[in-house]
Hints:
The chain is of the alpha/beta class. It contains 14 helices and 14 strands.
Amino acid sequence: MKTELTPSAGLRQVRYEIRGRLARRAHELERQGYEIVSLNIGNPRAFGLRTPETMRLAMIENLGEAEGYCHQKGIFPAREAVVMQQQARGVSGVTAEEVFIGNGVSELIDLTLRALLNDGDEVLVPSPDYPLWTAAVTLNRGRAVHYPCRPEHAFVPDPAELARLITPRTRAIVVINPNNPTGAVYPRAVLEALAALAHAHGLVVFSDEIYDQMTYDGAEFVPMATLVHDTLCCTMSGLSKVYRACGYRVGWAVFSGRTHAAAEYLAGLELLSSLRLCSNVLAQWAVQTALGGYQSIRELIAPGGRLHESRAVILGATARSRFLTLAAPGGAMYAFPGIDRAALPGFDDQQFALDLLEQKHVLVAPGVSFNVPYSNHFRITNLPDAATLREVFARIEALLEGYAAGGPAAAVAARARVVPFK
């Protein structure tokens, strides 16, 4: 008797639309010969941004040392380099024993939550969030409770609003700073208030700082671990973004604060790390060179640099548009534009993203992908060069003008007239 093979029921509430239906349709269009500008993922190599040569050389020179398993927490030189970075930022009491190297921050998000959560435990997650956080909480038997980072407040959370969401089941709070998808860089006072809440309620602080060196126009990045002392803080970062090495799959989790009171939890995390044997050994040899060498990211984010100038195009294009709104991103490699509902009252971000792909061959991520309760935003990356982004926003504006001129019926008709990408 033949039966249909169905996926785990645990996947029913899990979403990752950044690589979902729209991305699959984009691949179909590419196979048909269309050129798609894929702005749904922060993938520097896709836009010609290379990993520093010194990191590649470090791996070549240590190729012979990378053929066997390493310690489950990672190679010592990589972990010690992370310790030195944390100490330089004012984080005290950290040794290599408190550093775990993983196959990217993505793996570490899963492992750290798996070691912590029991059925029904709650984790405070920002909305909008990087959706892996919500998915990982769900997959590890927890409940993601979203605290709002509202567009009208430039996507910066209100600690008082967050405090009202804390219950006896709350175990942790997730902070993403600089933020993905909004580019918000949280003020020191807000981070201090979040740290105080974590202290008062005994919450673990998971601070996702993968964009830690990507800030613009004087925005100050404050490491959360410098503020969290009376509870456990887990700082996560890696090589993917700042060092343009997404494919190397190297991230790290650094534990600070009350580590002495978390010995059993850290032992459980080491057990999980052991079960997957170790992370990519070869790429770990690039960590020491990356963190201790010349920080080329500074050129990219400075005035005249690639990321700074691309961001300027986004700021200018949204300011000139009669449809778009934008809280200027202070960091990271994204912007999260909104649509003025007074200008386009029937706007739907998923339909817009599909129309933009089918008609204009530009792929973006609709705002609802990031666990928000509204449907008038989308995320775009500033990784392309300025000329490409100017063309992208011309196409966006043309689509929105079409919506305004003809309404939904015109949009449906236009979807039948797909034209080649030029």
